[in-house]
Amino acid sequence: MKQLYLSHKLKGVAAPVSVFVLLSVVILPLDFTGDRTDGIFHYLIAKTALKYPSYFFDLWGKPIFTLTAMPFAQFGFRGMHFMNVLIATATAWLVFLTAQRLKFRHAWLAYFLVLLTPVYFQQLYTMMTEPLFALWLAWIIFLFVDEKPASAAVFASLSPLVRQEGYFLIVLMLFIYLWKGYYRFLPHLLLGLLLFSFLGFLFQGDFFILINRNPYNGEDLYGHGSFAHFFERAEIMFGVVLEVLFLVGCVLLMLEGMRLRKQLEAPIKTKHSYHSRLLLVAGFSVGFFMAHVVMWWKGIFSSYGLERVMACIVPAMAIVALNVIDCAGKFLENKKRKTVSIVAAVLIALTSMGVFFSRAFFPPRKQLTLHELVLTEAADWVKSNQISFKKVYFSHPFNILLYNLNPKERKDSDELMYVGQVQNMDSGALIVWDSAFGPTNRFEREQLSADSTVLVLKSMRTENYEVLICKKK
Predict the structure, then answer these.
(1) Do 16 and 92 contact (CB within 8 A), yes or no?
(2) Which residues of 283-303 are buried (b: 16+ CB within 10 A; e: fewer)?
(3) How far apart are CA 386 and CA 168, in angstroms?
(4) Are 96 and 110 in contact (CB under 8 A)?
(5) Residue 4: what pLDDT?
(6) What 3-state DSSP class applies to 144?
(7) Partner of 92 for a Cys bridge, out of 62, 114, 270, 342, CB 3.0 to 4.6 A?
(8) Strand partners, 423
(9) Distance (Å, rounded) from C-alpha 133 to C-alpha 58?
(10) Mind listing the pLDDT tens digit for each residue in 415-465?
C-alpha cells in the first residue's frame, strides 16, 4: 500500500518537474528580455525596491509583483526569467489539479493548453506582470473549485495589487458569492485592499493610496483603435485549438446552465455550483477580453491595445477548453470511448504543438523592432563620435539598455515625462527624443528644436519614426 502511494505521488510530480526542466532549458540561457518597454521598468523597480521601499507601494509597478520579483531581480534578466519558469510550472500544474477536481478526462492536456498558447509562452522571457496574474487567477479558481471560498476571496482581494484587472475579478466574485449565499465571506473580498490601505497609511501617510496614487487616472496617452483589433488577433494570440475549444466551451456552458435551470429535480447545490463555475471561469475570461476590446476602442484607462495582456486569462480559457474535451468524451459509445478519447486528446496535444511552433516565434530570439533598430543606430552614433554627457534624458525605455541606465535612481538618467521642461534639465546632458514615446510622455519635438539652450546634434528618420539626439548647453 505504501509503495502504491509513493508511486502515485511520483506520477503526480513527474509532469511539473518535467515542465520545469524543459522550460529551464529553453528560457534560462536567454540573455535578453522579450519586452523592452514596460518590462524594463518593472525589473528596475523590483531590483531597487529594497533601496527605495516606497517602490513596494508603487501601483504602476504592482506591489505584489514587486515583492515577488525583488529577490529574483537581483540576478538580472535571467533571475526574472527563472521566476517566470517557476510561475509557469505552478500555473499549468494548478490548472491540471483544477481539472482533476472537476473530474475532467485527460486533465494532463492542461500542460499543453496553457504552456503552448503563444501569447502566454511569449511572456515567459519578459519581465511583465501577466504570468504572475495568470498564476494568481489559476490559484483563486483552484481554491474556489476546491470549496475554499474564504481563501479564494482573500486572494481575490489582493489581485488588484498584481494587475489592475483584479478589481473586475473582485466584482465578479461578489456577484458569485451573493448567488451562492456566501454572505459571511463577503468581507473577505475587501481584506487585501484594506490591508494595503492600512500599510499605505503606516508607511506612506496615505490611507487612500489606492485612489490617490492610481496611475490610470487622468489623461489617456495612447489614443484608440479598432473595435475588431483583439478579435482579428485572437488566432495569433491563442492558437486555433484553444480559441475554438473556448468558444465551443462557452456555448456548452450556457446550454448546460439552461438545462439545469429547467430541470426541477436537479439539486439546488448542483445548479449553484455549475453556474458559479460558469461565471468565474468563462465569465472572467469573456469579461476580461471584452473589457480590453472596449478600452482600446474607446481609448480609456491608458489602454494601448497590447496583445500580451491576454496571457492573463489563458488558465481560465484552458479550463473551459478541458470541459469541452470532457463533454465530447461522454457522447462517445462506451466500447469505443476510451480509444477514440485518447486518440482525440493526442491529436489536440499535437495540434497545440504545431500551432505553438508556428505562432510563438520559437525558439525565442532577440528580434529588434524598427524603432529599436533606429535607436540602436543613434546610440552607436553617439559612441562612435565620443559624445560626452553627464546625464541622459530619454523617452523610449529601450534607451535604458543601450546606455546602461537606471532611471529609477534618477542620477545618471531621467524620463522626459518627469522633467517636463527643458529648463529643468542639467547642463551637459544628452537628450534622446523619439517620435513614438516623446509625445505620449507629454514632451513634444518643438520643446527641443525651438529652445536656444538645446543643441541638436543628429536627426535619424525612417518611415514615420524619428530619433532626435540633442545636448543641453
Answers:
(1) yes
(2) bbbbbbbeebbebbbebeebb
(3) 51
(4) yes
(5) 47
(6) helix
(7) 114
(8) none
(9) 17
(10) 998 998 999 999 999 999 999 999 888 899 999 999 999 999 999 998 889
- Quickly count: other Cβ atoms within 10 Å of residue 262's Cβ: 7
Grid cell of 37 as nine digits:
518597454
Helix, strand and coil in the chain, % to nearest 5: 65, 5, 30
Angle at 64 between CA 61 and CA 67, to 5 degrees: 90
Helices 63-73 and 38-47, axial angle in degrees (round to 10): 70
What are the cell numbers at 103? 473530474
This prediction's pTM: 0.92
Place of cell 497609511: 201
Of 63, 56, 57, give the one whose Cα is nearest residue 161.
63
CA distance 76 to 46: 11
Residue type, 346: V
- Note the pLDDT of residue 13: 84
Q: What angle do CA 118, 121, 125 make, to 5 degrees?
A: 135
What cell does 427 get? Answer: 547642463
Task: Measure CA of the first residue to CA of the last residue in the chain; give whole Å.
Answer: 81
**Which whole-number Å values give the CA distances from 127 to 22, 77, 365, in the listed order?**
19, 8, 15
CA–CA dist 251, 249 (Å, integer): 5
For residue 191, what are the contacts with CB-CB under 8 A and spacing of at least 6?
A: 153, 154, 157
Q: What is the mean pLDDT of each run of 10 residues along the chain (473 residues)?
A: 52 86 94 92 96 96 98 97 98 95 90 95 96 98 94 98 96 92 95 97 96 79 85 93 93 79 58 70 94 92 88 97 85 64 80 81 86 96 95 96 91 92 94 93 90 95 93 94
